[in-house]
Amino acid sequence: MARSICFxxxxxxxxxxxxxxxxxxxxxxxxxxxxxxxxxxxxxxGSKYDGVWPREVLYRYLRGKVALRFDRDVLQRxxxxxxxxxxxxxAGAPSKTEAKAWLQEGxxxxxxxxxxxxxxxxxxxxxxxxxxxxxxxxxxxxEATTTKPDRxxxxxxxxxxxxxxxxxIAFLFHRASKGAAARYKxx
Length: 187
Hints:
This protein is mainly alpha-helical. It has ten helices and two strands, in the order H-E-H-E-H-H-H-H-H-H-H-H.
């Protein structure tokens, strides 16, 4: 029998998959009953979930972050903007297509954000759509991003967000299927 380095075999499996560089779901969590408020608190103050999110809270948190294009400063007001409240009012899981688009399009569009928040976003999308699809979204998002100058001649791109996404790729490759790893490493 193999020796465990964690307390349980389940924890050994999580560690082998790259824990804590991933997001897991906590089913039947008490915060799911007040998901809108919990999502707002997590977006405003930072997550207290340490990678294990109540499902409904995570879904609403992601919708809110995308609606605001990761602009956290907007949430420092006492009353959040209408587009945020409308986004977090939507219950249930996003479709895989919707979640994949958030990651793919966000690479070139979202505001700079802390590395921790960006990696949490990537791993959350991975938990929804799967590792192979997350790698596809990242590759497509990076390939579609341009660095065209604006009307004043300044380059338009979000280097900090992109850099933080790039730092998640090694862990995604660790969990990806062999076919996906072979397909996306050259890209």
